[in-house]
């Protein structure tokens, strides 16, 4: 949002401004009527300076006395009266307020136990709840009141106002005197104010446009701090109750936390914007600061947000993700350890503060579920906005502000004696849309959008009665006394277009009836309700004679009713726009006309319709009513243009006069200049051009300005007040005489013929106009909530006497637009109502006169009619979608037409039936005639073309119907597919009940649904279950270890190769340099030494392998470790799961995912078993079908046989069994056309019955036609045809059977006696076959019944298993439900453990890596040290014995030389250490070189005399190798130290991680135990038989089995077997332990023997060495001694280098001679130049002396030494210095060249001066 983009991540700071405001006594305030505080005395310049000086010290600020008060009469706003108008300022006196601005924030403050205070418009009302008396304070600015707040001491209260530069006024209570005025806090209005706990500071926040947050020292009227709070609306600002230096603000899409911080520049106000993060942005209405600095706020969706450190810590909701409140939370209160919240849902909920304060998020959503401790529902449709607590200590009473218009008294003790919520006061909430007074008494009726109608007694100042409805009221009028003399009827219009006539009466006038409550003074009842409109009713108007009522609506219609005891509709007219007002012409006009004002700029005039006219029955619309239209066309821009022209003309005349005066002055000035002789330019003579501005352009608004109100002036003329652009005038309009464009009246452009300007109404339009009873006062209701009164002369409909006016702001200036105003029946009182929900009553006379006048008078409620208690209650229209009067009439007409059409159709059908009957009779008569006399069917046709045409029409209709029904057909087809997919496709097996044939046994299949896709996905997931992250990481660890081991082996091989390669290269190099005559001898010696080395190396390798195989002290055999682990896993924890210290084994831990897998597996098993059983039953049914077919075949055969036998020999044929419908359920879904037609007839019959019932019940839809459709006729015809065809087929079959029977009889008669014998044989055969077939039938039946009984028994066993499976399924599901509750927490804990394990493993990998690297570096260091030792030994051997240069060569060998090092980056710290060490080393080397060069004692660059040069060069080469080894050794040590440091650090981290891991595992273990305890609470059903129960107490089975354990037989046998197995295993382990102890003792003895033998051999070896060598030597070194190849090579090199160096020395000697000669020449040249320079200087000095002597008074310019001479002298001195340096360099070079055998370095360059060119 904008605020976040502009103020995000910044803290707004503002310095103190205590000295910027002045103290109250220094102010001078003047008040003007209606304007409030209009001016202040401007401080002088001196005063401003004093104020600025006062900023330097706080002591200089003038203190305001504590007893200082302002005068209320001087500062409060008063009515504004036009000057010199003569209107009294007390024209209207406020009497009472019946309203309450219930939607304003915190608009309920408690002053004491009996007094509350709230804002109503421009007033502050102080209400005594006991006496109902009101005291009021007016706004001082006249611009409204933004906020009120009571001081913590209840002695003061702050009133923050609205307007231009509004003030905050502090009043004292109960005196109500203004105590302090705080100025300059905001620009337009205050949104909220709050005192701190101590009451010393006040915080205020402004509204648009500045949103300024200000902290005041209110007693001194000083601003302490100020800053812009936000860039959007700020709802609330409060101080922290614990730390008064902290504040909080909230508003549109933000919450901000402020702190008053003291910095070195002073006190600052720093704000931090709260960041919502993942939570959606929300407006924050309520919040509370907790003692520890956290903040709890509400949200738009009803949840609580806990803020900490500027971020949302958690979001709190109720269980099941329900919101804490439905809607926003408007207020938080921290009271006695409870956090109380109130919301728009009408609930008050109390939450545990400590639980809320310590709550933590458990998942990534950040939402925590929590239930309130207590809650209270205040009432239905209650919207709680704020609460204040009673002042009594420990009192549980609170007073609540209801945004629905109530003030409630609440008891929040939450105990058994808690009182029910009590509504103390009830007001309108929101806009009041209708207002009117009784024509007979002092009663007032109002209606509003809050769905209520209220009656007030404005003399007694109390409400009388209230009636509520289901829709909001939009208009109201009190029925005139002409219609109802008692004045007890009220007409009210509502949002849904309904008009209700309500009757007000005194119930005490009714007869006393049991059960009737007559305690009240007034009651209302519904007399009549009707609905003339389809939208909100906006206006009522009773005709002046009381015969007609006109109602207007937003649906652009005006309806007329005839009044009477019942209102009868006459008709309606349509108008061009939504109706705003209706006015009947006054009695002074001849014609009775109705003026209709529409919001879109139209005015319509129609005459009163006749109540006796008869209009068509089809509609109520009146078409022939003469109508006049007026379409307002804007003329405001032209009026402004004309006024501008007039103003400019006046200005032009004034300027002409000024111009003439200036012209005369200029001519006089020119004349004067000419007299003086001054020449004038053209510019002086030019006249200034006059620039004339363009006139304002003519502007016509695109959208017409809305008409707000109007009234008749003269017949045909009327006044209008418009809003929008055309506001600012009253327009006098006239209906045009010619109404030509009535068909398109929207194109009309009608202009008013006169206007009256209304002062200060361009942006403040006149909303309502009302005249007093004598027409002398015109009351205007303004858009800003003000009331204006214009005095008029008698009989002034043209408003020609309008001049001055009286005005007073009463309603809220921002949203208190006056909706209605009216006067009492006698004209002494004025009542106004506004959009802010307030109702004010004013007296037009003085208050004292009113009290005298009203003394003894009282509002009288009309008495009820005599027949009221006998009348039936009027029927109300509650349905907002009910038909209007017009629509109901149209519906009745439509239904009548439909009925007549159906009657005609029925008559035609009857005639057709008669014709069909006659035609059938003719056909029957024709059939009875002889054949030759019968007519053919074609002869019945009168004309075949008629039949063809009918057939063509029929086929065309059929095609048409097919096309029309195509969409329906497709729709029902898709619907059928969906039904099949939903109910049939998922059924794998339907219920099939197979019955036995000879018994009542039956077996049924399981109704089995196909396994869902979810099951298959879950099973696939279980099959493809991935290993956990811990398992994956363990595998990665193993893989990395293998890789590192392989890498280590490769590095070892590489090192071995590197060690071997230099030796080979050395051998090759040595072989190439040794002469041929000694090569063979040296080769043999080298081979022998190499063999000894190889042997020693192999021996070391064997020892190393042996030591590597040696186990450590803590070594454990892998097989033993695995055996122990397996034993621990198998032993388990045999404590009961119900034990408090039971530890769940890791492999037995269960979670929701595993439990889902168990459920899926169980479902699959149950499904498979049911499927197998169903297949068996289906196979049995198929067997029954085949058995029935076989029985049918056998029965046919038996019948055929019996047809040849005598009846006496017939055996009874078994009855053929039939397949029952429940055995073939799939046939239910097999249908044909006859079934479909039958179903269609049933459905149409149902629809017809339903339509008839709807017709009898009331108005139905327009589509409810009766009668038979074409489809119904066709279905009837088809059904009759199908029945006829079925009867024909039945008759033909009966005939065929008869023919066959006759044929058989004829054949039987034809038999002869010759066939008798054959028949007898056949008879015997047939009797046998008959018996066999019948036995076979009985056998088939018995076999099937036996199979069914077996399968039934199996099914019963299966049922038992299924019941057990269902019980197990229930148990698993209950466990899953419990596990789901633990799932999130378990995932978090398991994730934590897994992360710790992974972290630990990762660190272990690093430790192992560093350890391996460290071992490698140690081996490298050892190798380098060995190489260094070998190098030293080689050097010593090269020296030989008794070498007189041994000390010198040793120094040369051991001397340290500065070398360029190659740096390798190991780490940042190592780089720094290396650089430090290098710098130290370099400085050391430099110091050594310096000392050497100075002492000149030791020079390693020159070989001493008599020293072998070959040996010297060999020493230098060995030194270089030694330095290389030392450098490599230093680098390796640094790297090793780095690895060591990292390794130690990782070890420390591993300890921390292990402790964290143990903590996480402990938490997980506790959680698993808690989860197991929850699972233990579940009940598991285990069916047992008595013989399975072995738990007895006192030889009896106990009634309580809570302490019993249930084992399966398999598990029990397994335990018993395991006991025996463990006993045997125990004996075996004891025997193994005994053998191991004996073996251990034997190994210890063997080790001692071997150690003694080794010690004896070592002593023998030492003795042999002493005997042979006289000292202890290293045998390995001795064995590896061979020819010193290096020495041999050096000797060869020495011979070669002697010749080469001698030649080079000769060359250098020649060069030295040449250089010396050149040096001598240069020296001579420089000497000559110096002599010349000396001579020149002496001459110069002499010349200067002579010049000084000759000039006794030299000029000033010569006294100072010339600058050029100084520069020359300095140049020469620099040249001399340079030459001296060059001489020193040459000397050093000569000394260097003179040394014999030294390394010749390039000549050193002396410093070259920067200005060498100048010197030369």
Automatic annotation (TrEMBL):
Keyword Repressor applies: no
GO annotation terms (biological process): sperm axoneme assembly
Polar residues composition bias: residue spans: 13-25
Primary localization: cytoplasm
Compositional bias segments (type: Acidic residues): 1467-1499
Ranges of compositional bias, category Basic and acidic residues: 1-11, 39-57
Location in or out of the cell: Cytoplasm, Cytoskeleton, Flagellum axoneme
Region (Disordered), start-end ranges: 1-57, 1047-1067, 1464-1503
Keywords, sorted A to Z: Cell projection, Cilium, Coiled coil, Cytoplasm, Cytoskeleton, Flagellum, Phosphoprotein, Repeat, WD repeat
Coiled-coil intervals, chain numbering: 887-918, 1304-1331, 1400-1434, 1543-1577, 1619-1667
Positions of WD repeats: 425-457, 530-561
Entries under Pfam families matching the protein: WD40
Entries under InterPro entries matching the protein: WD40/YVTN_repeat-like_dom_sf, WD40_repeat_dom_sf, WD40_rpt
Family: Belongs to the CFAP44 family.
Role according to the record: Flagellar protein involved in sperm flagellum axoneme organization and function.
Protein name: Cilia- and flagella-associated protein 44
Native source organism of the sequence: Microcaecilia unicolor
């Amino acid at each position: 949002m904008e605020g976040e983009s502009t103020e995000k991540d910044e803290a707004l700071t503002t310095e103190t401004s205590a000295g910027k405001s002045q103290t109250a006594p220094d102010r001078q305030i003047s008040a003007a009527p209606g304007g409030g505080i209009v001016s202040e005395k401007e401080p002088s310049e001196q005063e401003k300076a004093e104020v600025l000086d006062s900023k330097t010290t706080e002591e200089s600020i003038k203190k305001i006395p504590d007893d200082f008060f302002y005068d209320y009469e001087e500062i409060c706003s008063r009515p504004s009266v036009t000057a010199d108008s003569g209107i009294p300022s007390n024209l209207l006196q406020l009497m009472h307020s019946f309203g309450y601005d219930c939607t304003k924030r915190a608009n309920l403050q408690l002053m004491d136990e009996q007094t509350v205070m709230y804002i109503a418009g421009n007033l502050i009302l102080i209400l005594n709840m006991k006496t109902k008396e009101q005291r009021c304070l007016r706004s001082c600015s006249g611009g409204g009141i933004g906020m009120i707040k009571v001081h913590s001491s209840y002695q003061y209260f702050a009133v923050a106002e609205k307007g231009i530069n509004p003030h905050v006024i502090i009043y004292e209570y109960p005196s109500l005197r203004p105590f302090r005025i705080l100025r300059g806090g905001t620009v337009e209005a205050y949104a909220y104010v709050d005192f701190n706990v101590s009451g010393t500071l006040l915080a205020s926040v402004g509204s648009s446009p500045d949103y300024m947050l200000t902290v005041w020292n209110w007693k001194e009227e000083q601003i302490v701090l100020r800053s812009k709070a936000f860039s959007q609306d700020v709802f609330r600002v409060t101080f922290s109750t614990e730390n008064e230096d902290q504040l909080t603000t909230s508003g549109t899409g933000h919450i901000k936390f402020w702190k008053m911080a003291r910095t070195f520049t002073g006190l600052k106000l720093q704000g931090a914007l709260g960041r919502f993060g993942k939570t959606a942005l929300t407006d924050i209405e309520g919040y509370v600061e907790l003692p520890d600095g956290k903040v709890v706020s509400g949200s738009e969706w009803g949840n609580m947000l806990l803020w900490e450190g500027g971020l949302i810590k958690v979001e709190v909701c109720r269980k099941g993700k329900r919101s804490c409140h439905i809607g926003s939370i408007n207020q938080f209160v921290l009271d006695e350890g409870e956090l109380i919240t109130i919301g728009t849902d009408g609930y008050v909920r109390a939450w545990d503060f400590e639980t809320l304060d310590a709550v933590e998020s458990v998942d990534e959503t950040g939402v925590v579920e929590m239930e309130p401790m207590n809650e209270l529902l205040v009432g239905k449709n209650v919207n709680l906005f704020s609460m204040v607590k009673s002042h009594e200590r420990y009192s549980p009473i609170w007073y609540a502000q209801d945004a629905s218009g109530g003030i409630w008294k609440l008891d929040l003790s939450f105990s058994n004696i808690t009182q029910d919520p009590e509504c103390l006061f009830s007001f309108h909430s929101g806009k009041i849309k209708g207002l009117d007074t009784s024509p007979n008494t002092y009663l007032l009726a109002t209606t509003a959008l809050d769905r209520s109608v209220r009656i007030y007694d404005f003399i007694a100042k109390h409400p009388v009665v209230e009636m509520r409805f289901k829709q909001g009221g939009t208009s109201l009028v009190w029925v005139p006394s002409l219609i109802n003399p008692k004045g007890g009827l009220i007409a009210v219009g509502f949002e849904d277009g309904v008009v209700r006539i309500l009757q007000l009466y005194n119930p005490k006038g009714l007869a006393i009836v049991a059960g009737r409550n007559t305690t009240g003074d007034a009651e209302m009842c519904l007399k009549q309700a009707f609905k003339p409109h389809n939208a909100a009713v906006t206006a009522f108007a009773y005709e002046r004679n009381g015969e007609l009522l006109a109602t207007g609506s937003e649906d652009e219609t005006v309806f007329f009713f005839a009044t009477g005891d019942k209102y009868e509709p006459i008709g309606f007219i349509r108008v061009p726009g939504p109706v705003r007002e209706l006015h009947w012409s006054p009695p002074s006009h001849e014609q009775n006309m109705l003026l209709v004002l529409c919001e879109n700029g139209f005015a319509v005039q129609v005459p009163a319709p006749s109540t006796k006219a008869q209009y068509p029955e089809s509609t109520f619309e009146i078409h022939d009513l003469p109508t006049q239209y007026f379409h307002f066309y804007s003329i405001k821009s032209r009026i402004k243009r004309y006024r501008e022209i007039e103003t400019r003309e006046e200005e032009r005349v004034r300027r002409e006069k000024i111009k003439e005066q200036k012209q005369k002055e200029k001519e006089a000035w020119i004349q004067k200049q000419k007299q003086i002789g001054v020449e004038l330019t053209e510019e002086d003579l030019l006249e200034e051009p006059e620039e004339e501005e363009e006139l304002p352009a003519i502007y016509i608004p695109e959208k017409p300005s809305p008409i707000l109100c109007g009234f008749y002036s003269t017949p045909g003329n009327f006044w209008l007040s418009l809003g929008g652009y055309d506001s600012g005038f009253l327009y006098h309009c006239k209906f045009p005489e010619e109404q030509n464009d009535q068909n398109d009246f929207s194109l009309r452009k009608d202009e008013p013929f006169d206007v009256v300007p209304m002062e200060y109404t361009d942006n403040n339009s006149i909303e309502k106009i009302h005249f007093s009873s004598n027409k002398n006062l015109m009351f205007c209701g303004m858009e800003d909530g003000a009331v204006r009164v214009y005095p008029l002369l008698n009989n002034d409909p043209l408003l020609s006497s309008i001049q001055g006016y009286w005005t007073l702001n009463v309603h809220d200036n921002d949203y208190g637009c006056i909706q209605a105003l009216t006067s009492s029946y006698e004209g002494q009182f004025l009542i106004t109502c506004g959009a802010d929900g307030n109702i004010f009553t004013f007296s037009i006379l003085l208050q004292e006169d009113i009290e005298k006048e009203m003394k003894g008078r009282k509002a009288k409620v009309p008495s009820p009619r005599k027949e009221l208690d006998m009348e039936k209650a009027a029927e109300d229209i509650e349905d907002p979608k009910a038909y209007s009067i017009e629509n109901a009439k149209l519906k009745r007409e439509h239904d009548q037409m439909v009925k007549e059409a159906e009657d005609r159709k029925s008559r035609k059908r009857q005639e057709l039936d008669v014709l069909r009957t006659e035609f059938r009779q003719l056909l029957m008569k024709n059939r009875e005639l002889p054949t030759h006399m019968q007519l053919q069917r074609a002869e019945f046709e009168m004309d075949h073309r008629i039949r063809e045409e009918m057939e063509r029409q029929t086929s065309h209709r059929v095609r048409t119907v097919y096309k029309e029904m195509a969409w329906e057909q497709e729709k029902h087809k898709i619907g059928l597919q969906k039904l099949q997919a939903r109910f049939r496709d998922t059924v794998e097996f339907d219920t099939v009940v197979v019955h036995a044939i000879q018994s009542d046994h039956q077996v049924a299949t399981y109704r089995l649904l196909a396994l869902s896709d979810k099951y298959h996905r879950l099973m696939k997931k279980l099959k493809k279950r991935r290993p956990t992250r811990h398992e994956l990481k363990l595998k990665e660890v193993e893989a990395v270890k293998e890789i590192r081991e392989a890498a280590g082996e490769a590095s070892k091989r590489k090192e071995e190769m590197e060690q071997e390669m230099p030796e080979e290269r050395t051998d090759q190099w040595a072989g190439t340099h040794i002469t041929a005559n000694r090569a063979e001898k040296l080769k043999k010696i080298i081979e022998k030494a190499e063999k000894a080395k190889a042997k020693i190396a192999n021996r070391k390798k064997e020892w190393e392998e042996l030591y590597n195989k040696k186990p450590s002290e803590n070594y454990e055999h892998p097989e033993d470790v695995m055996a122990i682990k397996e034993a621990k896993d198998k032993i388990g924890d045999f404590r009961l799961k119900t034990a408090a210290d039971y530890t769940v084994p890791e492999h037995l831990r269960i979670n929701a995912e595993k439990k889902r897998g168990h459920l899926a597996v169980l479902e699959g098993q149950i499904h498979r078993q049911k499927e197998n059983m169903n297949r068996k039953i289906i196979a049995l049914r198929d067997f029954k079908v085949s058995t029935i077919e076989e029985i049918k075949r056998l029965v046919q055969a038996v019948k055929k046989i019996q047809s040849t036998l005598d009846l006496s020999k017939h055996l009874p044929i078994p009855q053929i069994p039939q397949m029952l419908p429940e055995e073939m359920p799939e046939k239910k879904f097999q249908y044909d056309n006859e079934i479909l037609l039958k179903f269609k007839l049933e459905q149409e019959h149902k629809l017809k019955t339903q339509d008839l019932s709807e017709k009898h019940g009331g108005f139905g839809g327009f589509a409810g036609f009766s009668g038979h459709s074409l489809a119904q006729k066709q279905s009837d015809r088809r059904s009759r045809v199908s029945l006829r065809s079925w009867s024909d087929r039945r008759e033909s079959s009966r005939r065929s059977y008869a023919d066959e029977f006759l044929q058989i009889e004829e054949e039987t008669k034809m038999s002869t006696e010759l066939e008798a014998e054959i028949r007898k044989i056949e008879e015997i055969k047939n009797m046998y076959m008959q018996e066999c077939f019948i036995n076979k039938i009985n056998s088939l039946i018995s076999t099937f019944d036996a199979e069914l009984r077996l399968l039934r028994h199996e099914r019963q066993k299966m049922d038992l298993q299924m019941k057990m499976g269902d019980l197990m399924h229930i148990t698993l599901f209950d466990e899953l439900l419990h596990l789901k509750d633990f799932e999130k927490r378990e995932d978090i804990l398991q994730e934590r453990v897994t992360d710790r394990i992974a972290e630990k493993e990762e660190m272990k990998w690093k430790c192992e890596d560093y350890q391996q690297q460290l071992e490698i570096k140690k081996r490298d260091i050892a190798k380098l040290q060995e190489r260094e030792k070998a190098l030293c030994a080689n050097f010593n051997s090269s020296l030989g014995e008794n070498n007189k240069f041994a000390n010198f060569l040793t120094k040369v060998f051991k001397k340290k030389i500065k070398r360029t090092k190659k740096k390798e980056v190991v780490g940042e710290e190592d780089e720094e250490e290396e650089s430090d060490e290098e710098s130290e080393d370099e400085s050391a080397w430099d110091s050594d070189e310096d000392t050497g060069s100075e002492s000149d004692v030791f020079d390693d660059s020159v070989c001493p005399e008599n020293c072998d040069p070959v040996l010297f060069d060999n020493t230098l080469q060995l030194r270089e190798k030694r330095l290389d080894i030392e450098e490599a050794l230093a680098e390796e040590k640094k790297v090793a130290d780095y690895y060591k440091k990292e390794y130690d650090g990782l070890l420390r981290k591993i300890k921390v991680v292990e402790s964290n891991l143990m903590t996480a595992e402990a938490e997980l273990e506790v959680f698993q135990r808690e989860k197991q305890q929850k699972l233990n609470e579940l009940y598991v059903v285990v069916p047992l038989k008595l013989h399975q129960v072995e738990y007895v107490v006192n030889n009896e089975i106990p009634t309580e089995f809570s302490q019993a354990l249930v084992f399966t037989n398999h598990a029990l046998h397994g335990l018993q077997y395991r006991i025996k197995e463990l006993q045997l295993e125990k004996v075996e382990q004891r025997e193994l332990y005994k053998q191991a102890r004996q073996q251990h003792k034997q190994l210890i003895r063997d080790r001692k023997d071997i150690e003694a033998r080794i010690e004896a051999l070592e002593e023998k070896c030492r003795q042999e060495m002493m005997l042979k060598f006289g000292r202890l030597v290293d045998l390995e070194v001795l064995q590896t001694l061979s020819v010193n190849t290096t020495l041999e090579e050096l000797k060869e090199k020495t011979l070669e280098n002697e010749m080469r160096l001698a030649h080079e020395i000769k060359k250098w000697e020649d060069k030295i001679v040449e250089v010396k000669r050149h040096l001598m020449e240069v020296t001579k040249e420089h000497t000559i130049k110096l002599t010349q320079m000396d001579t020149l200087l002496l001459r110069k000095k002499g010349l200067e002396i002579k010049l000084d002597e000759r000039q006794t008074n030299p000029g000033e310019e010569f006294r100072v030494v010339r600058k050029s001479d100084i520069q020359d002298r300095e140049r020469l001195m620099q040249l001399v210095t340079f030459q001296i340096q060059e001489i020193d360099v040459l000397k050093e070079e000569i000394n260097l060249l003179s040394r014999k055998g030294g390394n010749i370095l390039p000549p050193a360059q002396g410093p070259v001066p920067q200005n060498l060119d100048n010197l030369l």
